[in-house]
Amino acid sequence: xxxxxxxxxxxxxxxxxxxxxxxxxxxxxxxxxxxxxxxxxxxxxxxxxxxxxxxxxxxxxxxxxxxxxxxxxxxxxxxxxxxxxxxxxxxxxxxxxxxxxxxxxxxxxxxxxxxxxxxxxxxxxxxxxxxxxxxxxxxxxxxxxxxxxxxxxxxxxxxxxxxxxxxxxxxxxxxxxxxxxxxxxxxxxxxxxxxxxxxxxxxxxxxxxxxxxxxxxxxxxxxxxxxxxxxxxxxxxxxxxxxxxxxxxxxxxxxxxxxxxxxxxxxxxxxxxxxxxxxxxxxxxxxxxxxxxxxxxxxxxxxxxxxxxxxxxxxxxxxxxxxxxxxxxxx
Length: 331
Description:
The chain has 331 residues and is of the alpha+beta class. 32% of the residues lie in helices and 30% in strands. The radius of gyration is 21 Å and the shape is globular.
């Protein structure tokens, strides 16, 4: 290998490593944000006034992850009905899963060279990129089963300060760079891992314009990890949020962390519009719903508290030109 090729290969590996690091940092930041929100709920007004503000200020500087519209995550009325949609025959729910995988793989296989908004740098990313939004469902943040207006008022500023929306490929996805899109075990996330057993219900709709819309609702999972289970096959799930809670100082007055920390993924859905002629997605929305419930939680002088919240995390495809520009590149 020539010196030039060696240098190029070295530079590519360095860039891939940097992208992987950003992905891991983003995932860690996501979990830290949720953990801090739960700490805010646990401690209520007392601890907020003395400590939390300082901790959040430090976090906003240290954490750069990579919103604020109500997400409709209702799954009632989603039911599979055998038939022919857009010229495609679906005899059973497994046919919907198989077609989804086919479309997902074909769409995610396409890459595109993106260029810097300023300067001459360029990168090869997935062609079909989407944005992300994170919000806490209104009224879901509870302290010992009750809402608190002061705590509710802190949620928006916390998210604004320390959640920085990113742009990525189809979920589950660790990076918009295909070379760095890997799970925690180092395996590629470039192809779908969905199997029929992952899906609780699904539906198909013929839009009458050469497109069909698939809706798939995965079965419920506690403590999901990206790429590793039914929910993680569809979404950028959080992984070990229980470990992160321990890292920020949460302990439990009785019982194990497994008994006291429930992170239930349920009622989320994937809604994808497919151009039947090309067999590719033209639009997609992934709506992840996570219900977190802590019991017997303690931090500092506060003991045996309960906290709960519901996270709504949405990915929309395709991302707008403005969203890409905010990340420093363009199509």
